[in-house]
Design goal:
This protein has helices at residues 51-57, 63-71, 133-136, 138-142, 167-174, 195-202, 239-246, 277-286, and strands at residues 49-50, 75-77, 80-81, 88-89, 96-98, 101-103, 111-116, 148-150, 158-164, 182-189, 204-206, 209-211, 215-222, 225-232, 251-259, 262-263, 272-274. By secondary structure, the chain is an alpha+beta fold. Helix 1 crosses helix 2 (63-71). Bound molecules: uracil. Uracil is lined by residues 153-154, 157, 238-241, 254.
Length: 289
């Protein structure tokens, strides 16, 4: 039966009491206001946080100044410059840059520098219950943050280990493609001769192929021992110890003092500190994030 039609051809339901099925598809999102504590609240249309608020919260500028930066075309969201005030973003997924520099706006992400003491395993949980990095950051992991260690240090090596729950950054920092430089201070047996510098810079033969340092400095030689600074971007196991041993200077103590621009500084063994925004920005940049 053809229902009575209006002038435009659509059925006139007021003049017809037949029950019609609507073929209109139900809206994917019904008009329910999501609760901010629900996991999917960001999925809802019109949700998100105003860009200027996100920038202010990340410490970039006051809200007012952030608005000015937006108008000046200095702010990018996911590679697109945004100049519209009030644009809403999702800080958990959107990538925000100011003047081309990535800003950490994801409050769920945590980034730490840890001074690993000697004798501590570079794992978050040791199968044999030995003291591990996880033992030091247990409180953090217990409170729901899963931190990863970025690379490893031998149990006998001390010093800087980066920890984060940002898997993408961690993976990239460990990837050989980005050539992330690490600096070590090695105390070795023997008074180092200046030829050591050339030897390590030009490459030294190891069981699994040659290894080169990017920079070598003899910091001190004293009483049959030397302190050597070695900078390299290699990630092979025991690389510094093996290089120095191959050159005739067995390592007695090894400390990692720097990863890219992040410095160990005066951190006490076993202590943890949050990375600052300059450090984080430079890490993002180094791995093209
Ligand atoms: N090289 C080493 O020999 N050991 C480390 O832990 C890191 C680099």
């Amino acid at each position: 039966m053809t229902p009575p039609a209006r002038r435009d051809g659509t059925p006139d339901r007021e003049k017809d009491d037949t029950f019609y099925i609507s073929y209109a598809r139900p809206a994917k999102k019904q008009n329910v206001t999501p609760h901010p504590l629900e996991d999917n609240w960001w999925d809802a249309p019109e949700e998100g946080v105003r860009l200027q608020k996100v920038l202010a919260k990340a410490g970039v500028a006051s809200r007012r100044h952030a608005e000015i930066m937006i108008s000046q075309g200095r702010v990018e969201v996911n590679d697109t410059i945004v100049t519209t005030q009030g644009t809403r973003v999702n800080p958990s997924v959107d990538i925000i840059r100011v003047d081309g520099v990535r800003i950490n706006v994801n409050e769920e992400h945590e980034y730490f520098a840890f001074n690993k003491p000697r004798g501590v395993q570079s794992t978050m949980k040791d199968e044999m219950d030995r003291t591990s990095v996880g033992s030091y950051v247990a409180e953090k992991t217990a409170s729901g943050q899963r931190l990863f260690h970025v690379g490893r240090l031998d149990a006998d090596t001390e010093g800087l280990l980066l920890l984060t729950n940002d898997g993408e950054l961690a993976n990239r920092l460990m990837h050989p493609r980005y050539n992330i430089k690490k600096t070590y201070l090695a105390t070795v047996l023997g008074e180092a001769k200046p030829t050591l510098i050339k030897q390590l810079r030009e490459g030294i033969e190891l069981d699994d192929g040659p290894a080169k340092a990017d920079y070598v400095q003899i910091v001190d030689t004293h009483n049959g021992q030397s302190i050597i600074r070695v900078e390299l971007h290699e990630g092979r196991k025991h690389i510094v110890r093996r290089m120095l041993k191959a050159a005739g200077y067995p390592v007695q103590r090894l400390v990692r003092t720097k990863v890219h621009t992040v410095q160990l500084g005066e951190m006490k063994p076993g202590s943890l500190r949050a990375l600052n925004s300059a450090e984080l920005t430079s890490l993002y940049k180094a791995v093209e994030m």
